[in-house]
């Protein structure tokens, strides 16, 4: 039984590692849905005034989406790798299509949350009803009372709707929610179609076989995990050595003492090495052999763009 459980855990671990982008995007979408629900219940209050309704409704949909988009850009490691690449190398090793696709990779990850926010807002319809109510044409409703203009129409989304207009309130809100949800479903269809086409384009344009691309994903994950864990240990040991040199001793717990004794560290890596392994990296080959990362390329003692005349370049990133 223990062996079966262990094998199942390994399977799920490998599955989640191989689907980390999809799972991350799903969690971001779920978190955005929860935030949108909370915002609608706690913070959304239509002003019920001509001019203000429209601006408030657009702000309720657009401003959180913009903030989520900027947060997505800032939290993406590719963003800062691209900044480092521009600052140090001016993207001179990247072709125009590769640069375009690198931006697309960053934007594709960043738009998950804002698109989810906008879609859920449209499907709920509250912000759209608030924004559009003042622009309704009273003559579009049968037996609508005369003498009511934008001031009254703007109050359909609020509780203080004029008494004479209450019989029309359900129909007005139903029409506006129909428009809002229709736009939301259209947006979902467009985004799903675009994602499908881009995924097809990625696999059609990839110079790698399916299994090699899967291996590349596994390598990137393993290298990132090992690099981060090793960097943490290296930094701790180097810091311990420097503190001991300053004070004459260093206060370490049992586990830290074992780490310091097991992994001797003399000096930090020189800056040129950090520059070599920092920045955007596209899949390249050198004399037929793959170079899976900047660290891999540095370990092979290669300089320049690391490509032979018949080399290949892959810019469609999956991480």
Automatic annotation (TrEMBL):
GO CC term (a single one): plasma membrane
Keywords of this entry: Ion channel, Ion transport, Membrane, Transmembrane, Transmembrane helix, Transport
UniProt record, GO biological process: ATP export; embryonic body morphogenesis; gastrulation with mouth forming second; swimming
Pfam families, per the entry: Ca_hom_mod
Subcellular location: Membrane
Membrane topology note: Multi-pass membrane protein
Chief site of localization: membrane
InterPro entries, alphabetized: CALHM
Chain segments annotated as transmembrane: 21-42, 54-75, 96-117
Ligase among keywords: no
GO MF term set: monoatomic cation channel activity
PANTHER family given in the database record: CALCIUM HOMEOSTASIS MODULATOR PROTEIN, CALCIUM HOMEOSTASIS MODULATOR PROTEIN 2
Family stated for the protein in its record: Belongs to the CALHM family.
The name this protein goes by in its record: Calcium homeostasis modulator 2
Organism, scientific name: Xenopus tropicalis (Western clawed frog)
Upper lineage: Eukaryota, Metazoa, Chordata, Craniata, Vertebrata
